[in-house]
Amino acid sequence: MNLPNKITLSRVLMIPIFIVFMAVDFGWGIIKIGGVELPIEHLVGAIIFIIASTTDWLDGYLARKNNLVTNMGKFLDPLADKLLVSAAFILLVEMGTAPAWVVIIIISREFAVTGLRLILAGGGEVVAANQLGKIKTVTQILAISFLLLHNIFFEAIGVPFGTIMLYIALLFTIWSGVDYFIKNRKVLVESM
């Protein structure tokens, strides 16, 4: 197993640790900034999420730079991304921070595009993420990060930045999903 794949695997292994910190109250206390309360466990969980998210960029960069792209990496990397983002969004719904309907749309798009990629892979095609998909990913990670941190940096000045980013992420999620299906509609029609 090469270094990029090890980094991707580490992202998968960080997911249960992230979930524990977000879901379990260890009684470590609370940080208060401008009237916003952030449990220390949530701070640790958010840091783990942010570190795990940055490994997505790092493993891809190293794989391309060092010519270490493998089939395992092509499979494991998007799976790790979807598991991490889905876990975070589901936790945000449980925390009452993200509306369930938004999360359902985002996760449904991920399943739909993954299904389309499987159909394409069956035909020997591998489609790399396009610019819209990359923007979608960045906006999702920003939204999740700020919401996990209880929007502590912006709430004090009355700007719900995490919530604003969530709806921007929703927009790019829908847009990139529709774009992906339109560009690959020929394959869908042929597979019916």
From TrEMBL:
<dbReference type="InterPro" id="IPR000462">
    <property type="entry name" value="CDP-OH_P_trans"/>
</dbReference>
<comment type="pathway">
    <text>Lipid metabolism.</text>
</comment>
<feature type="transmembrane region" description="Helical">
    <location>
        <begin position="164"/>
        <end position="182"/>
    </location>
</feature>
<dbReference type="Pfam" id="PF01066">
    <property type="entry name" value="CDP-OH_P_transf"/>
</dbReference>
<comment type="pathway">
    <text>Phospholipid metabolism; phosphatidylglycerol biosynthesis; phosphatidylglycerol from CDP-diacylglycerol: step 1/2.</text>
</comment>
<keyword id="KW-0472">Membrane</keyword>
<dbReference type="InterPro" id="IPR048254">
    <property type="entry name" value="CDP_ALCOHOL_P_TRANSF_CS"/>
</dbReference>
<feature type="transmembrane region" description="Helical">
    <location>
        <begin position="83"/>
        <end position="105"/>
    </location>
</feature>
<dbReference type="GO" id="GO:0008444">
    <property type="term" value="F:CDP-diacylglycerol-glycerol-3-phosphate 3-phosphatidyltransferase activity"/>
</dbReference>
<feature type="transmembrane region" description="Helical">
    <location>
        <begin position="43"/>
        <end position="62"/>
    </location>
</feature>
<comment type="similarity">
    <text>Belongs to the CDP-alcohol phosphatidyltransferase class-I family.</text>
</comment>
<keyword id="KW-0594">Phospholipid biosynthesis</keyword>
<keyword id="KW-1208">Phospholipid metabolism</keyword>
<keyword id="KW-0443">Lipid metabolism</keyword>
<keyword id="KW-1003">Cell membrane</keyword>
<protein>
    <recommendedName>
        <fullName>CDP-diacylglycerol--glycerol-3-phosphate 3-phosphatidyltransferase</fullName>
        <ecNumber>2.7.8.5</ecNumber>
    </recommendedName>
</protein>
<dbReference type="InterPro" id="IPR043130">
    <property type="entry name" value="CDP-OH_PTrfase_TM_dom"/>
</dbReference>
<comment type="function">
    <text>This protein catalyzes the committed step to the synthesis of the acidic phospholipids.</text>
</comment>
<keyword id="KW-0808">Transferase</keyword>
<feature type="transmembrane region" description="Helical">
    <location>
        <begin position="12"/>
        <end position="31"/>
    </location>
</feature>
<keyword id="KW-1133">Transmembrane helix</keyword>
<keyword id="KW-0812">Transmembrane</keyword>
<dbReference type="GO" id="GO:0005886">
    <property type="term" value="C:plasma membrane"/>
</dbReference>
<dbReference type="InterPro" id="IPR050324">
    <property type="entry name" value="CDP-alcohol_PTase-I"/>
</dbReference>
<keyword id="KW-0444">Lipid biosynthesis</keyword>
<dbReference type="InterPro" id="IPR004570">
    <property type="entry name" value="Phosphatidylglycerol_P_synth"/>
</dbReference>
<dbReference type="GO" id="GO:0006655">
    <property type="term" value="P:phosphatidylglycerol biosynthetic process"/>
</dbReference>
